[in-house]
Design goal:
Layout lengths: L5 H28 L9 E9 L4 H12 L3 E7 L6 H4 L4 E6 L11 H26 L5 E6 L5 H12 L2 E6 L3 H9 L4 H14 L1 E7 L2 H10 L3 E6 L13 H11 L1 H8 L18 E4 L8 E4 L5 E6 L9 H17 L8 E6 L5 H9 L6 E6 L6 H5 L4 E4 L11 H8 L4 E4 L14 E4 L2 H12 L7 H14 L3 H15 L8 H4 L1
Parallel strand pairs: 1-2, 1-4, 2-3, 4-5, 5-6, 6-7, 10-11, 10-13, 11-12, 13-14, 14-15
Antiparallel strand pairs: 8-9
Length: 503
């Protein structure tokens, strides 16, 4: 069997799209005729051209729409397991679409663009088919951006056909991510910027993740429709764990085994183990009491967590360099100060993971270890709730988005060291709820200042935890209601039975 010539392949693609387009027009006529027969329950379709299980903000939207008595169709890729509360909710239905092929990073630029074009066409047809033929006509479509190509054009067309209100949730600007791969002067990047502005400007409403992005959309992009800043907030179940809970969690995941399998000479790093101990805690059995008590081990390491998608906007060489510098400082101290051992746990999956983990596996540090750990969605907040410090290496491609991982850490009462970029101060207040660094040297010094002679020297950490507690007290459901319910009302949905209106 021979391959079709390029010209015939192109004609076949055009013919397929024309058929789908004609079918879409016929649907448009039918939906216009039946517009007054829509069910009373408001319908919302959420669209993320990404892994649903790794889209916390969109899962949060789904739960809040359902809480306000909306039916939710959730469209995206299969992959990481979504929250059980999503899977089991009677008003939320997941619609998985096929994964497109991955683009190898080593492809030459010209071939990369050709393969990317076919990938876009594949996504275009699949998404168009799903939104028109697998889902009933919604009152609203809320789409995550990025990716902008081909998502924004498809949802705009579908919303026009079905007379549906579009809400664009601006997480970042897609063209800035593409520019990291191809460069700012690339014609493809310039086209992507035009495309994103053209198809993203017109919507019923826009949600911006930061005030900086709000200003950009309002004054430079001049978007049409309602625009509001909607900051991410941690889920209500995120919190700091008690020592007993930390003990049981660490017993279950057996993190010592991960350290042994991923590092050299782990026996010199790990404290002695027993049936009553974990890496951080000890179970104390008191014969005079029916229930055991729990306490931290004196010889425990400091647990530092960094969650990542292992992409180019996070430079993990900074963390590796900081671990080396800390190890050198501890060795040079020669007992003058107490330098506790550090365990860096990196969570997440992504394209650059293997590259960095290969480098990490060759490290021979006495006072620090770096391991990679993949957790189910329900276990992720338990790890954050057990840790002593969070590190965020996210450096926004646009300088206008805020790292969700920091919000998760704050939700678990975890102070954060975060790499500096524009607008980060909307979230991380230096020396109040966290620390901001610019390079590995500054990160190393911050870790030393926080944990040298720990736990005697813990005043700064305690102060930051108090500030974070004020952040946690903000009611996340109320924040969502204040931002989204007026948008629903402006689109003709007035749900008098919503939880927001019943209180």
């Amino acid at each position: 069997m021979t391959d079709l010539p390029i010209s015939e392949t192109t004609l076949l693609a055009i013919f397929t799209f024309v058929l789908v387009f004609i079918r879409g027009v016929s649907l448009y006529i039918n939906f216009r005729q039946d517009a007054n027969l829509r069910p009373r329950t408001p319908h919302v379709t959420l669209v993320v051209l990404g892994d649903i299980g790794r889209s916390p903000r969109m899962q949060y939207h789904a739960l809040n729409f359902a809480r306000n008595e909306c039916w939710v169709d959730f469209v995206g890729f299969d992959g990481a397991k979504p929250l059980n509360s999503i899977i089991e909710h009677p008003s939320i239905k997941l619609h998985y679409i096929p994964h497109p092929w991955k683009l190898p990073a080593y492809l030459p630029k010209a071939l990369y663009l050709v393969v990317a074009a076919f990938k876009v066409y594949f996504q275009l047809v699949i998404l168009y088919w799903t939104l028109l033929f697998r889902i009933k006509s919604p009152d609203f479509v809320l789409v995550q951006n990025p990716p902008a190509i081909p998502t924004l054009a498809i949802v705009q067309f579908v919303c026009w056909l079905r007379q549906t209100n579009l809400i664009v949730d601006w997480h970042n600007f897609g063209y800035t991510i593409l520019a990291m791969r191809l460069g700012q002067n690339s014609r493809v990047v310039k086209f992507a910027k035009w495309y994103e502005k053209f198809w993203g400007r017109r919507a019923h409403a826009h949600l911006a993740v930061s005030s900086a992005m709000h200003r950009e959309l309002l004054y430079k992009w001049e978007v049409d429709g309602i625009i509001t800043t909607f900051y991410d907030r941690p889920p209500a179940h995120f919190r700091r764990l008690k020592i007993k809970e930390i003990h049981k969690f660490l017993k279950r995941i057996n993190i010592e085994e991960t350290i042994t399998s991923q590092s050299i000479s782990s026996s010199s790093f790990l404290p002695p183990s027993s049936p009553n101990t974990t890496l951080l805690t000890t179970e104390v059995v008191d014969t005079s009491s029916e229930a055991p008590s729990y306490r931290y081990r004196i010889d425990r390491p400091i647990l530092i967590v960094s969650s990542t998608s292992w992409t180019a906007d996070e430079d993990f060489s900074i963390l590796i360099d900081a671990a080396k510098r800390y190890d050198d400082a501890a060795e040079q101290s020669a007992g003058k100060d107490t330098f506790p051992k550090l365990l860096f746990v990196i969570t997440g999956k992504g394209p650059l993971r293997d590259k960095y983990m290969e480098e990490i596996s060759r490290l021979t540090l006495k006072n620090a270890r770096i391991v990679s750990l993949w957790l189910e969605a329900e276990d992720y907040p338990l790890l954050l709730g057990s840790a002593d410090l969070g590190v965020c290496l996210h450096k926004s491609s646009s300088g206008m988005d805020l790292p969700m991982k920091v919000i998760d850490m704050f939700g678990c009462g975890l102070p954060v060291c975060a790499v500096h970029y524009e607008c980060l101060n909307e979230l991380v207040k230096h020396k109040k709820n966290g620390l901001v660094f610019k390079d590995a040297g500054q990160l190393t010094q911050q870790i030393i200042d926080l944990f040298k002679n720990y736990p005697v020297n813990a005043d700064v950490l305690d102060s930051m935890r108090e500030e974070i507690e004020n952040f946690r007290k903000e009611n996340s459901e109320n924040q969502w209601d204040l931002a989204l319910l007026p948008i629903l009302a402006a689109g003709g949905v007035n749900n008098n039975n919503s939880s927001a209106n019943s209180n």
